Batch of 3 targets.
Target 1
Amino acid sequence: MKSSGKVKNDTMVTHYFIKAWMATSLLLLSISFSSAVKAQSRIYLANDDHTDYMFYADEKGYDTLFVNMIDAWMANNNATSSKPADYQTKFVCDGTFWAWVYAKKKTAAQFQAFMNQVKSEKIVITMNPLIITYGCVPAEATLRGMYYAGELKKKYSIPFDMAITMENQVLPLGLASLWKGCGAKYSWNGVCNCSTKVPGLLNPRQKEIYWYKGLDDSGVI
């Protein structure tokens, strides 16, 4: 991760986030299995922002952008709510830190409106606080990072079943078990086209969806 620093102007930051808005990430928000004959799967596509915290702006800049982006997507979701399901928008906050900042900056009523959209799954919040390089994070820190997700789940009765990590060429073996133990069912993992010691990693795979399991045989899809 690059060192933090103030941006020269707001244009660079805005441009970065607009590009992120336009990128549609494959996020596994819901998969249902038929116990009868054949497994039936449903995959949803939702806009997601890849948050490289402190990469292009300082803390104040990111706080402002988190709030503005949530407001914008809440407005989009409200505007499309009467359309057929396939044409309704959704958004994914890739960490609970978004919610924490929104709670600080907004009134209780505004935050409740945000939680209402999360409860209806118009907005999904992942269990991790931000995008984390889990290869250098101890187990205790991984668990503590999901405390706020647990607090929100209990207080507002909202769903939390997704945890994500991005730009990691490989993942720690035990992370799947920690996620599963905290209630995660699904994960989405993105890799960057950067230096890797895992040759052929980004080549087309026969199966893009798979079980990520730990040594205790528990894991996430």
Target 2
Amino acid sequence: MFNENAVDYSPDAVANAPSAVRADFIVKTYTHLTGAVMAFASLLALMIQVVPAQTAEKIAVTAFSGWNWLLVLGAFMLVSTVAERWARSSTSVGMQYAGLSLFVVAEALLFFPMIYFAARYGGSSVIPTAGLMTLALFAGLTAIVFVTKEDFSFLRGILMLGGLVAIGLIVCSALFGFNLGTIFTVAMIGLMCGYILYHTSNVLHHYAPGQHVAASLALFASLATLFWYVLRLVMSRD
């Protein structure tokens, strides 16, 4: 999840810029988002191809085992914090791209165990189905924001609280060994839909014109997490 404090609520926000600047910012944001998604998918496909099945199996089993999963999530959160900070750099465009690239690589590494299990045991249709469902949800939520032009920044507190509760439940699940189940998965899908509404409305209203890399990272983070839980839901129904 993205650090909401990165959003610019000043008079210099893109909503107050000329229409040409706003349009350019939106195009750049979604172009970078598309590039991030393509790089993410390519990295996962490459890892599935080059990592031997036996090694991949060991990595997947080890990653999802109790405390190990907490360590994996902790490392990901640390790396993502660094990546987000780099992507928000106001002095170095290179640092912004380094942050986005680092985040995409970190997401691919985090996803690898789940994707391996889905590809190995879920059937050939599981990943494409989850991907299409995720893109459909994302497109629908994006359309809602762009058509209504609603500012969903009021969701910030609710989303932060929901995220903290989710993290607490994930930690408790890993520590005490209970399964969070389908209800939690559906709730997380709902939470990520809220984040997508929030971040998309920030693209229209609150980011500064030079923050398109940070904006694309925020959208990618929510989109990837949505895909994670949609994939879990599809796998549970397969």
Target 3
Amino acid sequence: MATGAPISVPTERGTCVLELLDLLFREGVGPESILIAHTFLNPDPTYQQELAQAGVFLIQDGPGRIKYYPESQTVAQIEAFLSSGFGGQLLLAGDCSRASYWKSYGGGPGYSYILSRFVPRLKRAGIPEVAIRQMLVDNPVRAFRAKEIIE
């Protein structure tokens, strides 16, 4: 609370996020300071809308992780958020948390996947360039800000 640094929370397949947000909001944390990962692993559109309406940043970290869902579903989720006006809350991430996801260890998809493979797929799906920039640049700039501490 003193620094204004964002709170980034991984979830277990997008579960218990509303309960987590209730706790953080009761403690006085504003939605602009909360980043939630793995929420897209719970593809229920009603649940997704509830999370977006809370005003927090949602990290779409599914690209390249097709063991959970096909990427067509990931693209559809992004399209739904954009069409509902929640594009200002989306961040794209690769979630390369294991060495088996790293190209340097012979795995994949690797850190370059979003820019080299997923962004072109978004463009082919008709996602506007401005929305892609928003998810990759503009939203992260807003999400990862920290307030100046004056003593």
